[in-house]
Structures are given as structure tokens and as C-alpha cells.
Amino acid sequence: MTFHIITLFPKSFDSYLGESILKRAIEDKKIKVKFYNPREYAVAKHSLLRGGSSKFSKAIRIDRPPFGGGPGMVIQAEPVIKAVEAALRRIRNSELRIKGNLNSKLTIPNSKIIFLSPSGKQFTNKYAETVSKKYTDIIILSGRYEGIDSRVKKIFKMDEISIGPFILTGGELPAMILIDVISRQRRGILGNFDSLEERRVSSSEVYTRPESFKYKGKSYKVPKVLLSGHHKNIESWKKKGRKD
């Protein structure tokens, strides 16, 4: 599975993707993460007009005031469109190498485009599982400021997804959440596939050694049922979420 992230700030992903389970999954080539900075595609057009220089400049602006007024800036549609097209071309070229023949349209049946938006459909484990099973390539549009020009959504078929009823300063954190939740639905990512909480009886309360310890004179013990070895009673305790 390959995640194609459209973002102005690709370096913000370095820390999270460079640790623990996702780092191992990337090293083991179970997942790949590719980045497409819309600024680079604006620069390509800009440079062509200025004589063909391809040197990337952060001074190139792709955010503009919104039509109709209002605070903040909106990311222009054209650089984002070009970034999505670049991702689709990469996916299509990969498919050609594997399968040998595809139609000429820049659409690939095994790819899904996701537009991150506070007003989108709520992201869930069920959605993540469906995407993980159906698609090998996932393009995620990660916006900033007041968002991305809405005409992008009219050009490409995509799902508009929200990670929750709150507003963030950008789509990078939601994109990381999608990578994490969707990746763990793939066999081999977690090591033991039974680690998926949604596939087993789980509780919000978990305990490990020691069985008992004291803090400021008070004893804190593991619930007796978890030490009993009685699997039916343990599962019942987990389902009820009891604290005794």
C-alpha cells in the first residue's frame, strides 16, 4: 500500500513516520509514503515562463485571499490539481509496470482520493478497513490556512473526510492519523493481526506487572478476575468495563 500525501509541509511527517510500528512497516516495504508539495508544481509553471529554471523557491505563493471576503488565505486550485495528477501518474506508471496495459485515462481503479475537511464524513475504523481492503494507493489532500479551493473537489472523484468535530491549523495531523489507522488494518503491520482492538474483546482498562504496588501509603492492585485464569469471566469483565 502506498500513501500519496499532498502537503505544503512534508517534513512535519518525519518524526511520526520515523518511529515505532510505521517506521518498521516502511523499512519492511509493507507501506510507502510519497509526498507532493503543491508549491513545487507552481514553481514548475512559473519557471517555464522565466526561462526553464527548475530551482525550487519557497517564495512562490500559492495562497490567495478568498473571493467574497473573509479572514485567512485559500490554497489555489491549480498547483494542487497538478500535484494530484503527479500522484496519479506515478500510480499509473507503477500499474503499467505490474500489469502491462491500462486505458489512457488518468484514473486508476485501485486508488482512492481523500480530501481532508472539518465538514467531511466522520472517519471511522470501518471506513479505514474498507479502504485498506479495496485500494492499494491512497491520495490524501492535506490543506492549510482556510483550506483548498473547492474546485479541486469538482475535478476529481474523492471522499471528503473529517477526523472529528474540531478545527486544526492544517491537515498534516489528520493525514498522519489516516496513515496510522488504515495501515494497521493491513496484515503484517502489527505483527500479530489479533492486536486489532476491534477484532477482539477489549477494555479501556489494562494492567501488567506488578500485581500490587503502593503509592503514598495506598495499595493499588490488579482486579482479581484478571488473575483468575477463567477466560469466560475475564471476557465478561472486559465487555462490561467493570473496575472491580
From TrEMBL:
Entry's Gene Ontology BP terms: tRNA N1-guanine methylation
Catalyzed reactions per annotation: guanosine(37) in tRNA + S-adenosyl-L-methionine = N(1)-methylguanosine(37) in tRNA + S-adenosyl-L-homocysteine + H(+)
EC number: 2.1.1.228
Pfam (any one): tRNA_m1G_MT
Domain (tRNA methyltransferase TRMD/TRM10-type) ranges: 1-242
Signal peptide: none
Domain of life of the source: Bacteria
Function, as annotated: Specifically methylates guanosine-37 in various tRNAs.
Record's GO cellular component terms: cytosol
Family: Belongs to the RNA methyltransferase TrmD family.
InterPro entries, per the entry: Alpha/beta_knot_MTases, tRNA_m1G_MeTrfase_C_sf, tRNA_m1G_MeTrfase_TrmD, tRNA_m1G_MTases_N, tRNA_MeTrfase_TRMD/TRM10
Record protein name field: tRNA (guanine-N(1)-)-methyltransferase
Molecular function terms, GO-annotated: tRNA (guanine(37)-N1)-methyltransferase activity
Quaternary data: Homodimer.
Location relative to the cell: Cytoplasm
Enzyme kind, highest EC tier: transferase
Organism: Candidatus Zambryskibacteria bacterium CG11_big_fil_rev_8_21_14_0_20_40_24
Binding site for S-adenosyl-L-methionine: 143
Keywords, alphabetical: Cytoplasm, Methyltransferase, S-adenosyl-L-methionine, Transferase, tRNA processing
